C-alpha cells in the first residue's frame, strides 16, 4: 500500500482492512473477482435503466459465475459439471442405519 494512503488513514484514525503493512497480495483474489465482475457485467450493461436492474443483474451474474461459467482451473468445465463428474467417480455409499 502506498505510504501516503497509510499515513492518511492513520491521520483519520482509521485502521486499514488489509493484513501486513506494504503487502499488496492480501486482496489479490478479491480484486481479481471484482475485475471479472466489472468486465463481464457492469461495463457491458451500463447505463442501468432503473434501481432494481443492478440488483437483479448481480444475482444473475453470481449464479452464472458459481454454476455455469467455464473455469480454466476446472479443465474448462462449469462448477456444476465438475462437481457432478467428481461425485460420479466416487464409490457408492451405503445408507445409514436408523
From TrEMBL:
Name the Pfam families on file. Answer: rve_3 (PF13683)
Q: Where is the Integrase catalytic domain?
A: 13-79
The protein's name is Integrase catalytic domain-containing protein
| SUPFAM superfamilies in UniProt | Ribonuclease H-like
User: InterPro entries per the record?
Assistant: Integrase_cat-core, RNaseH-like_sf, RNaseH_sf, Transposase_IS3/IS150/IS904
